[in-house]
Every structure is written in structure tokens, then in C-alpha cells.
Design brief:
Elements (H helix, E strand, L loop, with lengths): L3 E4 L18 H17 L11 E4 L13 H12 L12 H12 L1
Parallel strand pairs: 1-2
């Protein structure tokens, strides 16, 4: 079986938001994501060589208990993350974007 790694937060089911946030610095977050990929796939920082192919950027950004910003802000964030120069092996993929586009086309 393939590993599917989500770079994001845990779902927030509480009445008060604790984890559903909008990232403050998109570029910094993108560098962190690239470092995580390097750690798990390239052995960086005492890491591994697991060759994970599937990386999700956030999860369900259209859900208010997952992303506190607007859809447009998420798209800006997503574009920055997938285009970070330090990203190894074109690693990023996002099921959430595909699902959202599919839902929009069905309406």
C-alpha cells in the first residue's frame, strides 16, 4: 500500500476554533513542507528514504473546521506551497483541490 501524507492540521470539531486556522506566512509554511518531504524521502536531518509519492496540502479547505480563510486565500497558499523552489521531486499533490473542482462542476 502507498503512504498518503497530509501536510496540514487535524480536524477541529470544537465549538471554539483551536486548530482550524489560516496560515500566517504562506512562504514559510511552504519551506517547512519541503523540509518534511526531504526528511521522509531524502534522509535529510536523520530522516528516511521512504519515497512517499502522495502529499496532500491541507485537507478539505472548503470546510470551516479545517481552514479559517477564504477559498481564494487557500488557492494563493496552495500555489505558493506547490511552487516552493526547495520542493523535491515535484512531490506535492492535493486531493482536496480535485474534490472541490469536481463538486463545483456538478452544481
Amino acid at each position: 500500500p502507498e503512504v498518503y501524507y497530509r501536510l496540514g492540521i487535524s480536524i477541529d470539531h470544537a465549538k471554539e476554533r483551536f486548530t482550524a486556522v489560516k496560515v500566517k506566512d504562506f512562504h514559510h509554511y511552504a519551506e517547512i513542507c519541503a523540509g518534511i518531504v526531504r526528511h521522509y524521502n531524502k534522509g535529510w536531518a536523520n530522516g528516511y528514504h521512504w519515497n512517499i509519492k502522495y502529499w496532500e496540502i491541507w485537507n478539505e479547505p472548503e470546510a470551516k473546521n479545517m481552514w479559517a480563510g477564504t477559498w481564494e486565500e487557500f488557492l494563493e497558499f496552495f500555489v505558493i506551497v506547490i511552487n516552493v523552489p526547495a520542493r523535491p521531486d515535484n512531490a506535492f499533490i492535493n486531493q482536496a483541490i480535485d474534490e472541490h473542482i469536481q463538486k463545483q462542476s456538478e452544481q
